[in-house]
């Protein structure tokens, strides 16, 4: 063998070995709750908050989407989470007024867990599906996506199901009897995710869950969300709990166990009678983050894993992110419409009618948040708004405080509205006697606007903000 050929072979072996080592690492310990503070994660031996701004969930099921380029972008931007949908649900062109929707593949470019049969007639091009056979090309793509994410330190939320919001989505689902060769799923879209009116689909859904769980068993960087927005489209709580049971039963005979997430509500809700195996309770559009305090006593991760419908500017979503994490949340995922097929680097310029935002600059802002929370020993912190007196000035700024009492304090001043304006604020904080180092940080840029030393007298510290434009954060550490 000549030297050049030997070098190529050695390089190929090294690349293959490196890729497989990330999977093998996952056989030791999957993403879990942090033992001493289960409001946060333990990932690769480190306490972790998941913060991201990711694409619209079609990275795997849309064959036109370059997953590697997308994950490279998340890693470059310093983000550590993505969501992806399984393919049990897919969207039509134009759904929700989303331009270049990754969840709406072009005709013939949709791939899902089920193999195509020999009968033509799928509603979006190609043959119908056979719900008794798996598409191994899909599972190869899925596992490669999770492996590539793991190599970049990105956690994957594997979203198993999603309700059919209207007939246009149901017409495209492989579960619809019109789209499969098995004659299964001849039911109303509102009966698909029930235990007793599903027309034979429950067995198909159970099998899909078992297959995905088995295929992803060796990966450390994945957790399972039962169903996106189950509060729409007739999804029953009994069915959701049953799917959680199927995940548990499936993993009982496998080497590894993964976290289970349940999507609870838009905005806020009190979780009632939670399934004991659910470790992450996710909400959408959770601004202001009242749902964190409402459910903090569960001692599980509270997440905000979808944003939108507040315009295309950065400010509303940045405020939502900072407020949620500083209120004690452990997960934030912005829905970023600048990721589309052909622009997997997140540079797509979407129209003003897009139902949300996202862009490279916003992702840098999310990294500022991630770096800010990581500058603390946050697993020793808890929400402590009771130590804050209402901020004076600042146009009615809302304040959020995470604290490790007597040592470290993280404060965020959120604007009362979404319009930028010059603000000044005075914050009064109850502190033990001592000297503290304060840094005022611009959440949009990460720039430290002011450093100062403050001393607590009579248990109080008064902090006067430098003039700021939109919002501001404070890092306060005992000297």
Written overview of the protein:
By secondary structure, the chain is α/β, with parallel strands linked by helices. 24% of the residues lie in helices and 27% in strands. The protein has nine helices and 22 strands. Strands 4-13-12-11-10-9-8-5 form an eight-stranded parallel sheet. A six-stranded antiparallel sheet has the order 14-16-17-22-19-20, covered by helices on one side. Helix 1 (3-25) crosses helix 3 (136-151) and helix 8 (315-326) packs parallel to helix 9 (360-374). The longest helix has 23 residues, at 3-25. It is elongated and about 80 Å long.
> DSSP helix count?
9
Spans of 5+ residues with little confidence (pLDDT < 50)?
1-22
Q: Write down how many β-strands occur, each being a DSSP E stretch of 2 or more residues.
A: 22
Question: How large, in whole angstroms, is the Cα Rg?
Answer: 24 Å
Q: By helix and strand content, what is the structural category? A: alpha/beta
Termini separation comes to 64 Å
Helix content percent band = 10-25%
Q: What strand line-up does the widest sheet have?
A: 4-13-12-11-10-9-8-5
Give descriptors for this structure.
six-stranded antiparallel beta sheet; disordered N terminus; alpha/beta; 479 residues; single chain
List the helices and strands and how they pair.
Layout: H1 3-25, E1 32-33, E2 41-43, E3 46-48, E4 50-54, H2 67-76, E5 81-85, E6 114-120, E7 127-134, H3 136-151, E8 155-161, H4 167-170, H5 201-215, E9 222-227, H6 237-252, E10 260-266, E11 278-284, H7 290-295, E12 301-306, H8 315-326, E13 331-335, H9 360-374, E14 382-383, E15 388-393, E16 398-404, E17 408-414, E18 425-430, E19 434-441, E20 448-456, E21 460-464, E22 472-478
């Amino acid at each position: 063998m000549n030297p050049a050929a030997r070098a190529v072979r050695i390089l190929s072996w090294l690349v293959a070995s490196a890729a497989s080592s990330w999977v093998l690492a996952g056989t030791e310990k999957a993403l879990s709750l942090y033992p001493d503070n289960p409001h946060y994660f333990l990932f690769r031996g480190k306490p972790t908050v998941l913060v991201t701004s990711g694409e619209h969930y079609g990275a795997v099921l849309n064959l036109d989407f370059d997953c590697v380029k997308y994950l490279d972008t998340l890693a470059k931007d310093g983000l550590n989470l993505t969501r992806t949908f399984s393919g049990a649900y897919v969207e039509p062109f134009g759904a929700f007024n989303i331009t270049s929707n990754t969840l709406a593949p072009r005709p013939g470019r949709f791939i899902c867990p089920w193999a195509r049969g020999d009968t033509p007639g799928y509603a979006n091009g190609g043959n119908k599906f056979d719900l008794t056979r798996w598409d191994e090309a899909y599972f190869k793509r899925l596992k490669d996506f999770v492996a590539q994410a793991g190599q970049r330190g990105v956690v994957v939320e594997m979203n198993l199901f999603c309700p059919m919001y209207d007939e246009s989505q149901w017409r495209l689902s492989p579960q619809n009897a019109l789209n499969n060769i098995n004659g299964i799923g001849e039911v109303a879209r509102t009966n698909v995710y029930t235990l007793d009116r599903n027309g034979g689909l429950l067995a198909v859904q159970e099998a899909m869950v078992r297959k995905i769980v088995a295929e992803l068993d060796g990966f450390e960087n994945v957790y399972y969300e039962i169903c996106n927005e189950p509060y729409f489209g007739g999804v029953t709580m009994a069915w959701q709990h049953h799917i959680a049971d199927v995940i548990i039963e499936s993993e009982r005979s496998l080497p590894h166990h993964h976290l289970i997430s349940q999507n609870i509500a838009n905005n806020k809700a009190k979780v009632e009678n939670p399934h004991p195996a659910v470790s992450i309770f996710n909400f959408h559009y959770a601004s202001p983050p009242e749902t964190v305090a409402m459910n903090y006593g569960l001692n599980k991760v509270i997440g905000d894993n979808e944003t939108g419908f507040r315009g295309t500017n950065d400010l509303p979503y940045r405020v939502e992110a900072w407020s949620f994490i500083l209120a004690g949340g452990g997960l934030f995922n912005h829905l970023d419409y600048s990721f589309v097929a052909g622009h997997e680097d997140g540079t797509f310029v979407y129209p003003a009618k897009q139902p949300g935002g996202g862009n490279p600059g916003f992702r840098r802002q999310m990294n500022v948040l991630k770096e800010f929370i990581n500058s603390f020993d946050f697993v020793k912190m808890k929400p402590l708004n009771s130590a804050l007196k209402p901020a004076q000035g600042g146009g009615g700024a809302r304040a959020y405080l995470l604290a490790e009492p007597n040592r470290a304090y993280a404060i965020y001043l959120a604007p009362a509205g979404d319009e930028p304006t010059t603000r000044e604020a005075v914050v009064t904080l109850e502190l033990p006697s001592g000297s503290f180092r304060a840094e005022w940080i611009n959440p949009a840029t990460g720039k430290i606007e002011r450093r100062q030393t403050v001393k607590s007298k009579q248990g109080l510290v008064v902090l006067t903000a430098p003039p700021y434009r939109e919002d501001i954060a404070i890092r306060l550490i005992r000297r």
